Amino acid sequence: MAIDTRLVGEFQSDRGTYYKVSIIDTQSSTATQYDVEAAGNGFDLTYQTDTDDRFTGLIPSEVKFTMFVNDPFSSAKQSILDSIRTSEYKRWQLKIESSTNGTTYSLFWAGNLLNEINPEADESLPRQFTLTAICGLAALENIPFNEDIAYDLNLAYTCYRYVFNAINTDINTDNNWATDDRFIRTMVDWTNSQIPRNNATDPLNNTRFIAATFAPVDNNGVRQPETAFKLLNQICKAFGARLYLSEGIWYFIQVNTYEEMDSADQYYRDYKKGNNGSTHTPDFYGTIDLNTSEDGTNITRLAGNKFDYLGILKQAKVSYEMFGSYDLLPSTITNASGTSNTVNNSLVAWNGWRSTGAGFNTDSGIYGVNDLTTSTDYASYYMGELVVLDGQTIKINRTFNRAINDTYAGWGFTDNQSILFYHRLKLDDGAGTVRYARSTYTNGGLAQWTTNDVWGNAPDYNVPYTFFGASELFNATPNVNNDLGSFVLNFETAEVPIAGDLYFECYAKVYYDYGNSTDVAEDGTEITSATDQAKLYIYSAPENSADQIFQIYINGESTSKQTFITSQNIANGLTYEVGDLLIGSGPTGTNVGRLQCYNNTSWDDGTNITWEAYGGGSGKAISKLLLNEIMAGQNEGARVFDGALKILTNNVSTNGYKFHNGITIDSSLFVPYQITFIANEDTWQGEWYEINTNTTTLTDETEAETLNTNNTINTNSW
Predict the structure, then answer these.
(1) Minimal CA–CA distance to 705: which of 526, 559, 529?
(2) 376 shares its domain with 479
(3) Consecutive sets of 10 residues in the chain, 718 residues long: mean pLDDT of each?
(4) Do 590 and 629 fall within a single domain?
(5) Which residue, among 436, 419, 434, has the nearest Cα to 368 in the 3D structure?
(6) Same domain for 468 and 601?
């Protein structure tokens, strides 16, 4: 089906700006187009922010367009309106274009029409109709973030990629931009020691987090993605930014950028509609000043305005759910030859034929040649970097399965098999100190950390972990491409002793033709033939259950979070509560929601705590930086302008005003809250809040807490 424009209304505003409003059918079977007469205000464009929150993340907008129907084609137009009334959301769109000369038009706004058309008076023609369209941000509350996008929940994507995908795919108005049109503008100037600070490097596109952060496991053991709205709003919150559509471009802009532009132009990066950010390179970049002023000549205040005030902030709080109920996700696997590949959350002890789970198949596709004397033939999984936290342990509960890809007759032997499974955790500080832990070396039920290599020659550590006694051996007859039998690795370590890189390492020995002895190594025959090995696969499948875990614990709790508090020393004041964030700085390389950073060559492990704003500061965790930026703008209170501004000139590019502009009123810089643009009158009315950051000395605090403790932090501010 074609995408066709069906209704078009044109008008000219008081100052002489030309507007064209088009009603578009994305499932059209006809190209017939009809003109309509715009009525009243032409259209009203309203931005819907939270007027109690200077750092509202997603800012939806809506347009109301009123038109007359009174001509020989009234019945055809009525039929179109009837279709809008009865069609599903996303079929019909409203597109607004603007022009200074009535000839060359550019995109002003686009959105999806709702099926509410009102009021329709019971009267003869001419009859008036009002249509309502929304930019699509609000509707993301009903759309899982991966609904139409093939996210691998175990992989990390850039923050920009999440924003692009939601706007481009989930909102469904992308057809109003050509491939080479400017589509998204980012203005982010928070960097760290990993991210270079220059106008060509976009911190939003140089940070990433694992998609599973926003896909918790439900009661049935299935990951259920959160909504696209929650995902995007959390990204906005984490960076102290707002996301909205203004003058035909989607803006992702940090709130305090407006203050910075008061003294110097600020970095911008523009991405074309066809650029999803995969190369980390914006199409256009440079510096810009988006601020303008109410000067009485180009922009003037109307009568009836007033000023109000926001209270002084005593402190700001945010909680970062640094662990959450998510499995640790192995990032790479390394074999005996040192070859590394990316994995997909499978843990493979023996890979003879199926490389899909591991994403990796080298050395003839075989793990575990099963020669303990070399201590080299094992798979090593990198799990991330750990820091030392009080009460921090590691708990493992993973089911391992056995599978084959051949018939019983093809094995070259005629009896059943048993398995000995070797494993260990290794913690390496990178400076010569290494600690090991495994389930067979315990004290008080916890696997203890030791300096001894548990795969060495010392007798105390040379005992393989045996899952199968005489009554627990694999007794099933092999079948083609089948999982046959399983065992469970289940233990918890003692408290983590050192900071460093965490590895899970394992391999297996397989025996056949066993008798009745409990020691299969004495009574059976070890499989050593490459021919036989190539038909066997011993693995733990990707985690899809809350019980299948490889997790950090804090004081026995499976989930934990950090609460950050930034305050100033005053007797009275308000508390700003950001709520719970699922993305932040580390604190370890195993936290799923950690923000990994890219230096344009390689990614770090996500533990970077050197974040600073606008090229200044001493460096801190990104959540602390967020609170500092919030406090800086309201630690002396802030004024609110409640009134109306009228645009007096037709020079849209230099003297106009749009939602993305800051505006100086009486020598103070203001940024819009909820405001409405009345197109025909060239008037903006609503509320603007003052931007005036202050460097009053602030105090940062960090608290660690589990989800089972009393928590007063607001959890509703997504």
Answers:
(1) 559
(2) yes
(3) 85 92 88 86 92 88 89 80 91 95 94 83 72 96 91 89 96 95 98 96 96 78 86 97 97 96 94 96 97 92 93 92 59 59 63 37 36 53 76 83 53 53 86 88 78 51 34 34 63 90 78 49 51 60 66 71 88 91 85 91 90 91 95 88 90 72 94 95 95 82 48 26
(4) yes
(5) 419
(6) no
Check whether residue 540 and residue 429 sit in a common domain.
yes
502, 525, 554 — which closes off a domain?
554
Do residues 356 and 410 both lie within one domain?
A: yes
Cα–Cα distance measured from residue 488 to residue 300, given in angstroms and rounded to the nearest whole number: 73
State the CB neighbour count (10 A cutoff) for residue 314. 17
3-state secondary structure of 409: helix
Residue type for position 71: D
Q: How far is CA 224 from the centre of its chain?
A: 14
The answer to whether the pTM exceeds 0.90 is: no
In a domain, 115, yes or no: no
- Residue ending a domain, among 554, 585, 615, is 554
549 shares its domain with 578: no
Q: Which of 236, 171, 277 is nearest to 718 (CA)?
A: 236
Within this chain, do residues 602 and 461 fall inside the same structural domain, yes or no? no
Residue closest to 603 by CA, chosen among 362, 387, 357, 332: 332
At 193, the amino acid letter reads S
Cα separation, 306 vs 639, in Å, equals 10
DSSP 512-581: ES--S-S-HHHHSEE---HHHHTTEEEEEPPP-STTSEEEEEETTBS-EEEEEEEE---SS-EEEEEEEE
Q: What span, in angstroms and rounded, lies between the C-alpha atoms of 110 and 65? A: 12
Instruction: Assess if residue 477 is contained within a domain.
Output: yes
Tell me the residue range of the domain where 363 lies: 332-554
Same domain, 566 and 478: no
Helix or strand run (H / E) with residue 170? none
Please name the residues in contact with 650: beta carbons below 8 A apart, sequence gap of 6 or more. Answer: 15, 16, 17, 100
Report the domain count for the chain: 2
Q: Which two tokens stand for residue 386?
A: 């750990």
Give the 3-state secondary structure of residue 655: helix
**Tokens, residue 166:** 């939601």
CA gap 600, 201 in Å, rounded: 8
Q: In 10 A of CB 327, how many CB atoms?
A: 23
Are the C-beta atoms of residues 57 and 240 closer than 8 Å to each other? no
